[in-house]
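Recall the central idea of this unit: under ordinary conditions, the amino acid sequence of a chain determines the structure it adopts. In this exercise we apply that idea directly, starting from the sequence alone.
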Amino acid sequence: MLARQALTGDFILDIRTYNLVRGQAQKRLAGVPHDKRTGLLRCRRQTERTRRREAQGKESEAICQAKAHRQRAWISWWEEAVQHENWDAVVMLAGMPRAIQCQSTMANTLVERCTDKPVVAILLDAGVNPNDLSRNGTRALVQACMKGHTKIVRALLAAGADPNLVDVSGDTPLIKAVWRRENTEIVRQLLEAGADVNMMDGYKRTPLTKAAWWGRSEAIQVLLQAGAQLQPDGGGLTALIEATLKGHVAAASVLVDGGAACDQCDSHGRLPLVVAAAWEDAAVAEKLIRVLVRGGALPNALDGSGLAALHVVRTSGAVRALAEVGAEVGLMDIAGRSPARCAFDQGNREVMQALIEAGADAGDNAAGVLAIMKDYHFRNQ
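Accordingly, the structure predicted from this sequence is:
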């Protein structure tokens, strides 16, 4: 009876409420004491709470759609204002609350316009954050450093740009600044702003090893003065090996003067002097050999593969340069081969002749080496 009466009440709104009411009525008919906490009022409150939550969910979805529409409209207005260079409208849009949800759009504009100092100044004054990522994951400071815009870099740093933030590619502002040919002013600005001189990029390369690879001798000097470490970077590469591999004599000289170890192998077992001797350009090889020997390189040291400089030499000039500093023309490599045998294996008659002139052992027992060396020697007298 009670359950039937309950069904006629306006506050009974769904089947769950009916079941609760029916259960309470059965308990009362059975003589169970009435529990006020599970009465009809509680049923009504539970039902109303359920409906309210459902209404809020529908309202949230509608609000989200409206917000997305307003965001798309704001982006459209912003892009149109930038396209027509209506900077008054840009400043007005940047001050709207909707701009908070569109930071990547504003950062994208800052990155694209980072070659125009007046526009950059307008955007920064309008409140565009110089540390925000653009749509493609680039930062304005990294872009300005890469393009070598000294004044724009200074403006971005003054506006609070962090010199140690990387973009999605792992590029750091300092490494991009080093990449610019002999543009050390930006490098100095970044270091003065607190850039970490030893911070590695996404490939575990440091600014010093990158500067050595690109042959930026002035940048190397600035980095060393700022405390750049000469130890191998995250990839096990040393700056001196990088400069030697690329034949940058001036960069290698700056590194040697800065205290780089000339007898240190990199993670691949490469020794600077052995790398220098392998250059096919005689002038580059001779200059690098002299620089490295001046820095303490041992002419008879073996690299990680068991080879000395004379075992890989490519030119007669390099042979003479090594012989002048004490390289042994009869030194055996880890496989028991002499420099003459290595030159024979490479078919390099020029080096074989230079080795004879430097005093190579005429009793070299490598098959065919002695005959070829003597033949070449007598035919060219």
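Residues 40-83 form the longest helix (44 residues).
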